[in-house]
Write the structure tokens for this entry.
Amino acid sequence: MGLCAARAAGSTMSMAYPAVLSVVQQEWGLSATAAGSISSAYQIGTAVALVVVSALADYMNPRVVFVGSAGLTAAVALLIPVLAQGHISALLLFGAVAIAVSGIYTPGIMLLAERFEPARRGRAMGWFLAASSMGYVIALVIGGIMVERAGWRAALGALALGPLLCFVLSLALFRGERSRARRTGPRQGFSLDADLSGNRPAQLMIVGYVFHSWELLGMWAWTPAFVAAALVVQGTGAERAAGLGATLSALFHIMGIVASAVGGALSDRWGRTAVIAAMMLVSSVCSFSFGWMLAAPLLLIVATGSVYGFSALGDSSVYSTGITESVRPERLGSALAVRSLLGFGAGAVAPLVFGWVLDLHGGRSASVAGWGWAFSVLGVGGVLGLLSMLWLRTLPASRRLAGGKR
């Protein structure tokens, strides 16, 4: 519970930029491609940092990595509302906070893998990922309210308090465990071996995660701006639309909280690949339809977005669980490093490509076709991820997953 609370608090900055995107894009005069590049910088920072953190966690105490990263995240987050002045400064600052916050992700997964046997691990991973979504909800709700009433700098300042709380919680959480962790003896030494050579189940889990990240992170980056654009089409003022767009997008992440918990538990009962395939099928349908609803009734947009948020995130914890069951425990950190580099690398490109498609159709004043094609590009990743899981289900080695349930 404490680990989940710390994760939720530390995750607020992950949605800080999407919460203010539509406002700062206009204030700084950014094209859609430039606006998307700031989200891409966040994902690039995440990808690079997770490679280092995940590999280090194989031979360092993950509790120490968690606490240190939480403190660094708090420091950088508090600087963003003060120093962000435009495209380049925002790109560097959000990239830096992504590097910092990444250190609380992989160590958390490894700590859960240590504490929970495979029969209960999917549910535990689900709650850990659900905690992330709770942080995103908090960020979008508070950010949406603050950006409308006090401006984007005040919104970012308020959200920076989340990582500060994460740091305080982590100090309290691990205070009594550091000495116990030292008594367990030294951890496995560093190695470039990630137990992936010839390991087809792990390889396909990573491939699926890459396409999952393409769809999910691209959707997360642009959904608040899309909802804001839909509100403007219906006659809402720009700043009011930005705040309301962020707040309504929080509903999609609330569905993600439910999805993370439900997806993990269902995968314990029905199998990893079965749940992933079902989620990716639904999310792909949503990707190919959501953007075309720019002029649709708001209720339809919110309803579809809720299903989208549920399905796009519902398999995330299952991928994490599947990796822990596909590689040797002593090489788990290295395998997660490879997965993170490729997955968040794809997630870094997706918002940029999304913005480029929007610019081809008018940028900030993009038409229905612009938003429709941009979201459809994300759907391609969903389809490819679905195919990778169907392939995995055909392999005898997939019986190692979920105690034989695949």
Observations:
- The chain has one domain: 2-174+188-404.
- The CA atoms of residues 184 and 355 lie 49 Å apart.
- The two ends are 28 Å apart (CA to CA).
- The chain has 17 helices and no strands.
